[in-house]
Amino acid sequence: MGAPIAIDDPADPRVAAFRDIRERDLVGRQGRFVVEGTVVLRMLAAAHGKGRFRAETILVLENRLAGLADILSDFPDDVPIYVASAAVIDAIAGFNMHRGVLAIGVRPEAGFDAQALIAGLPERALVLAGCGISNHDNAGSLFRNAAAFGADAVMLDATSCDPLYRKALRVSVGSVLAVPYVREGDMLDLLGRLDAAGFAVWGLSPRGEVEIGDIPVSPRMALVMGTEGEGLPPAVMSRFRTARIAQRPQLDSLNVAMAAGLALYRIAQLQGKI
Amino acid sequence: MGAPIAIDDPADPRVAAFRDIRERDLVGRQGRFVVEGTVVLRMLAAAHGKGRFRAETILVLENRLAGLADILSDFPDDVPIYVASAAVIDAIAGFNMHRGVLAIGVRPEAGFDAQALIAGLPERALVLAGCGISNHDNAGSLFRNAAAFGADAVMLDATSCDPLYRKALRVSVGSVLAVPYVREGDMLDLLGRLDAAGFAVWGLSPRGEVEIGDIPVSPRMALVMGTEGEGLPPAVMSRFRTARIAQRPQLDSLNVAMAAGLALYRIAQLQGKI
């Protein structure tokens, strides 16, 4: 952990990365992402040094510095830790930053590609795949559930939203930094690769053939969630086996993250992961 | 359904209830709530006339009027339906109202009280109770899950947030208007009443004694969720039986709505509700 550096001027160029963070986040900054709060910071600390994500800068509310010492000490000396008063931080960030800590993270220059990710999975593996997941809350919740139930990887197609977007990362309680993932390509192609690697692929849909409690266990299983609203594309529904979750009739189907959680819990139990 | 009334002036007093709806919602307007979008409007139409909730006013985007005819026709003639262009509606509501329809609902003057709600429950019943549920997303998701898995009622203590708040209602996909609920009093008192009415009360907690798959079935069951972060109060944990949901260690516990959904699904299956 480097020595904390006091910032008194909101215009200080050393904290330029945090300026008006809410607005700029909407545009995205090449290769960077925003970390808010202690829970996600702890996940960034765990990820830093493992080679995939790293911390670039940390900005701490002065009265939270002591309380955060155990997390901050996990970062190496070359990650600058800036400290400022609430008034200065609010002026920098452009909103009331009650969470007490912000950080800028850096994405890996070369992310996992799907083939490399699949090649690295263990013999007994559980993968969560998402097709057209466009809502950041749902994307974050999918990662949170994937982590909770021991999924080994998340695979999103190119039409899904960025899980490192500020809100998605926060809702994931930082799990996006912990569960290996890709976001690329076409879902049928991704699922074809999983199939070729011995995965039993199951699409989840209100029109699924099998109740989730009756899914047979396989050493390698992949669960595919469709976009909110429209659900899984017909091409996925027709090529792979499908499962459903019993619910009361004549209601909107379950939220996608909720449905994924129910199915992951069931499969994780079958596979002995939880 | 009454004849639609065109509104050309954003300052028209007939649509005053919709003015700057986002800002005013934060303060709350006595006895009223805001409905956004067709899914929730459909639930309001179903609730209207059943004596609990009713619609006061509806405001429709002019190019959506034809598409909404089937829902609007479910409202009686004395509910005024105002129609306006996107520019006029945005000027009234103070934001881009892409959902195409807004309505003002009215709460019942006398809500259910807990005793009356419990007295009206069937012999085979499932109740979801929430203690200190302070996040509107979570409150909405709890109702959505309660409806999906056939819960007969939701009971919130007085420290929980208002599930008719705009965002909670939207996240619930309108289920707040469909599942009978109370929000009052102290959780131990509410649970004592359920216990006295023959309910097997189960608190859900990461420190619960029994895995949810091992909860024995009872004709009347109540599931209690604690506040985000702190979980259930010790007084609830010590007085009632408790259940847990297996997950990977050393992670944040599951989101409260996710945990409730997993337990409701299991209990609803045991009770034959789904």
Automatic annotation (TrEMBL), chains A, B:
InterPro entries: Alpha/beta_knot_MTases, Ribosomal_eL30-like_sf, rRNA_Methyltransferase, SpoU_MeTrfase, tRNA_m1G_MTases_N. Transmembrane segments: none annotated. It comes from the Bacteria. One of its GO terms (biological process) is methylation. GO terms for molecular function: RNA binding; RNA methyltransferase activity. It holds the Pfam family SpoU_methylase. Keywords: Methyltransferase, Transferase. Residues 127-265 form the tRNA/rRNA methyltransferase SpoU type domain. Gene3D superfamilies: 3.30.1330.30, 3.40.1280.10. PANTHER family: RRNA METHYLASE, RRNA METHYLTRANSFERASE 3. This is tRNA G18 (Ribose-2'-O)-methylase SpoU.
